[in-house]
Amino acid sequence: MTADEAKNSMIRNQLEGRGMVDESVLRAFRVVDRLLFVPEGLARLAYADEPLPIGYGQTISQPFVVAIMTELLGLDKTSRVLEIGTGSGYQTAILSTLAREVVTMERIKELHESAKKLLDSLGYSNVRAVLGDGYGGYPDAAPYDGIVVTAAPPSIPEALLTELAPGGRLIVPIGTAEQMLVRVMKNKKGELTSENIFPVLFVPMRHG
Ligand code: SAH
Questions:
Q1: What is the distance between the alpha carbons of residues 149 and 134, in angstroms, rounded to a whole number?
Q2: Nearest CA residue ID for atom 17, ligand 1
Q3: pTM, rounded to two decimals
């Protein structure tokens, strides 16, 4: 199987096969190649249905989880997005193809630097990669139409709710041993509603 065939079968089996129909998200998965974002030694697992280690005790998320979180954001070409937990930069690249602008934060310097270098070299010019603790979000570029957190805090960081634009959506895994993927929506009046999506397992969100 060629890399392209492996990527297409990942999209067919893991995404479409699980009921994902959002054509713009599926297209983003066709355009962005996960192989470029996994460590060289794990190339054979680049399209596997699982998270993979990327060093420093962190992981690149399972493709399906990246897809669902992205779909839940409901992005279009006018959207401004904040991602907390750049990691490999894979989800950043997916978001970059769907949105107008992406700010992505990572607290581990080495991961921040390698993801930034890779995203720059691949021409993702609407991405701003920031080194730092995303627990307080990134107020400098707020408000955001979408905020996605790819590490789990014990409860929703208040700052992220503040930085959400009216009509905006926050997707975040909440919990410690047991985690739930949660979507918070802010309506035009600024009122918040929240819904549980399904149980997940992310690396913990560090604070400080
Ligand atoms: N979306 C990434 C997921 C990486 S794992 C990918 O698919 O590759 C989650 C990342 O969140 C880790 O790299 C971890 O270092 C980072 N992280 C954890 N707590 C953070 C915080 N408070 N601020 C910024 N990044 C954080």
A1: 9
A2: 85
A3: 0.97
